[in-house]
Structures are given as structure tokens and as C-alpha cells.
Structure prediction request, 322 residues.
Amino acid sequence: MPGKASPDDLLEHVFGRTGEVDETVLCGPAYGEDAAAIEPPEGILVVSSDPISLAASAVGRLGVHVACNDVAASGADPRWLTAVLLLTDEEDLEPVSRDIDAAAGEIGATVVGGHTEYVDAIERPIVVLTAFGTTDRFVPTGGAEPGDRILLTTGAAVEGTAILASDFGHELDVDPEVRERAAAFLEEVSVVADGRAVREHATAMHDPTEGGVLAGLIELASASDVQLTVDRNAIPVREETRQLCEAAGVDPLRIFGSGALLATVPAGAVDEALAALGAADVPAATIGTVEAGEPALVLDGERLVDPVTDDLYPLWEAADRS
Prediction:
């Protein structure tokens, strides 16, 4: 039945699932309370919102990490979250709220408010997370300078690989063990540790999401008004990703990329940045250079400037038609 979640459902599944306990939260989720109250510390407040509307598996976990990744990629520590849950029925609430609680707790963030409602007009849950964090030094997407080097953590299509395995794996000609390992990539979509490790050295940071690494690089080039020259072979692509993308007929550089962080650092700081990432157990590679010129991504000599459409959308459209 459409409408707000009942007080009993909220008490059982929402109010006790708020991730980290944070003493700066003066008023958090409670029945009848329509707003949160936070006493923030001094510094710069960074805010980012993102919806998750297509991935069928673990939308709560993805929602937390996608929103918090944007805050982390700006040099801040994600601390507070609001969550809007649009659900198809009461059975959605338990797994979605459980995943939000677990993901928030893992990165030290607290859910301070939101809204939960059952909606007849949707076919799968939709979650919208807003993340808030603080920092003393904001790192923009648009800060890359000519002469900088481009770093990529973890590899291409971490989130996309997990989505392929979870949402489409049963249709793909891939070894079940490979599919199982790939589905576990969902546990690796946070870049909070990546951002903390490299932010001291970075001139710009950006997390590739929809459209993958290519979209992220094009956005970074546009925001910074520079040309990025990148070697495709230098971009790390894990074996599970290669196999699933080949089976699905998609480009690993053009599917959802949460789980990786793009960072530009001065040439003289590359070794320090890589060492800091290594100390945090975050794998990283140098994939290209920042150059003066009209904003563009030059990938193996091909100049790319237009927004990238994610290769997973046709798969979801085909699934909806079947």
C-alpha cells in the first residue's frame, strides 16, 4: 500500500540503523521529527547527493558509498547522511536499511535523517543519499595543472563489475567462481580511504561513476580546462572485470566506476602519493599526464570531449523489455 512507512516499521528497521554514533548530532531520526540538528566543527562543509535507481542489488550500500565518495574525493571526511528511501513494498525496508547501516558504520558516517515511503509507481527501490563532511582543505575536480600526473586507484569498473555479476551474471557465459568473486567487488566501492591517503598531495580529485573511467577523465579535463593524455594499457583492469565485460559486450572503461579515485598530483609528488596510498593498502597506478590545451581526454591518440553514455544502460533496458 502506498504512503509513508509506519511508525512500527521505522522503529524496527530505521531508527536503530544509523551507522556511527556521533555526539555532534543533537537531533537525529525519530518519529515526528522532520529535521536533523548537527553542531558541526570548524572547517569547510562539503555536501553531495546521489540517487541509486537502476542497480537491483544492495542499493542501500551503493547509495551510501556513491554519496560519500563524492565528499571524500573533495578532500573531506564523510560524517553525516540523510537517506530518502522510495520502496516498492514493506519487504524492501529490511535489506535496504540494513545495508545503509552497515555501509555507514564501515566508513564512520552517521545517518541523521531522511524519509521512507512505499510507492506503487516504481518497479525497484530508489534511494537518494546526501552526504556531508568537513575538511580544512577542499580539493576540487577543477584543480589539475599542466605538468601534473594522473593517478587511478584500484582499477576500472569496480562497481560495474559487481553490477554485472549481481544483476546479469546468470545470463553471462562466465565461470561461477569468477562471477562470485566479481559480485564481492560491491564491498570495494568506497574511496574514502583513497581520498584520505592522497588528498595532501592532490591538485584535483574525482571519482568516476556513471560512464566509468572515461567519463570521469573527460569531466576532470573539462572542470580543470586542461587536456589529459592517457594510455589505455596503463589503466588497471582486473581479470574478473575483463571476463565479465567481454561476456556482456561492454567496455570496462565505460561502465560504472565507483571504487576507483582519479587524482592529479604534481610530478614531483608522485612517489610520495603512491607511497601514501600503498601505506593505506590502496593499489594505484600512474595512467597519464596533464597538459595545457583545449579541454579533452586524449586516449591512445583519440580525442574525446563528449559525455560518455554508460554501457550498462542498454542491458537494463533489455532486461526491462523481457
Remarks:
- The two ends are 26 Å apart (CA to CA).
- The CA atoms of residues 26 and 37 lie 5 Å apart.
